[in-house]
Amino acid sequence: MSLQTAGIHHITAFARDPQANVDFYAGVLGLRLVKKTINFDAPEVYHLYFGDQAGSPGTIMTFFPWPNSRRGRVGGGQVGVTTYVVPPGTLEFWENRLKSFGISTVKQTRFGEEYVQFSDNEGLRLELVEREEGPNSEWWFGGIPAEKAIKGFGGAILFSTDAAATRKTLEQTLGMKKIGEDVGNTRYRASGQLGNIIDVPHSDIAMGAGGAGTVHHIAWRAKDFAEHVDWRVLAEEQGYQPTPLIDRQYFNAIYFREQGGILFEIATDPPGFARDEAPSALGEKLMLPEWYEPYRSEIEANLPPIEIRAMEGKQE
Q1: What domain of life is recorded for the organism (predicted)?
Q2: Arithmetic mean of pLDDT, 114-140
Q3: DSSP for residue 184
């Protein structure tokens, strides 16, 4: 069996402060909070989803913000850097915007592309790159016009404890194409327009520790429910131990850990985030799966209030 993923579906990370998380990703980066729900396995913790206007696959960054979370350590077995893509000619705008919020940036060049690297309020490593490829976001917020807004993911840098094994998984399991080597990295391309470029450092990296400021897992796209079943069969045939199919309300999921220690998920494109909210009202209300609805009042009382607010940086 041979399958090809279109690229990243979503990336899920840990955080501490829910309001600070919203302020950074909605207020500073201008992403849309497309879903406000809970961790289905720990209903005392929010699960927040940020993306483009619809929360399209390839744009979704999700967080478990838990005030009591320990501080994590970025390392092997994780997404080391999450790459966002912006329209051509906008990198200077973003450098200036980040600077206005006191966010330090560093420039790096890989594969002939210039990246602006920085960290979020929890220490999660991020970077921006300009690319023509992929549709522009239709969402604008907080002084970021739509024509300069983050499109979605450009891709990611995977930190692996067994880089050779991770590279093999990208090619032989996920169906990505190796497209080059440069600056100590091997680059792979998936078939989609967003979240399609993955870099893997050549050197093995010592295992990190999960916690605030680190990525929990990276999810890859399955185009529909039928293909999702095939992905599970393929993972099992290749010696992984995938979970059963799990209904996550907005997509179905399977999980397995590849040999470099990174937790991979395969997530379906459908049904999407408008299944229980109108597209114009995404993220406005706490959404619960039906089995938690009888406990809504208790759950809401236990969660700290959060609000979406525009953030103003300091102008020089």
Answers
A1: Bacteria
A2: 97
A3: T
Which residue in the block uniquely carries the two structure tokens 């185009």? 223
Residue 37 above 70 pLDDT?
yes
Kindly indicate the confidence band of residue 312, based on its pLDDT and cuts at 50, 70 and 90. confident
DSSP-derived letter for residue 27 is I
The answer to whether residues 114 and 107 touch, using CB atoms and an 8 Å cutoff, is yes
The answer to whether the CB of 158 falls within 8 A of the CB of 199 is: yes
Give residue 217's pLDDT band: very low, low, confident or very high (50, 70, 90): very high
Contacts of 1 (CB under 8 A, 6+ apart): 230, 233, 234, 237
Phi, psi of 91, deg, nearest 5: -65, -35
Smallest CA-to-CA distance from 263 within 78, 125, 82 is with 78
Cα 37 from Cα 71, distance rounded (Å):
23
Closest CA to 158 of 196, 200, 211, 190: 200
Check: CB of residue 76 under 8 Å from CB of residue 161.
yes
User: Residue 106, class by beta-carbon neighbours within 10 Å (0-12 exposed, 13-18 middle, 19+ buried)?
Assistant: exposed
Domain ranges of the chain: 8-302
Pick the CATH number of 8-302 from 3.30.460.10, 2.60.120.280, 3.10.180.10, 1.20.120.790: 3.10.180.10
What is residue 14's three-state secondary structure? strand
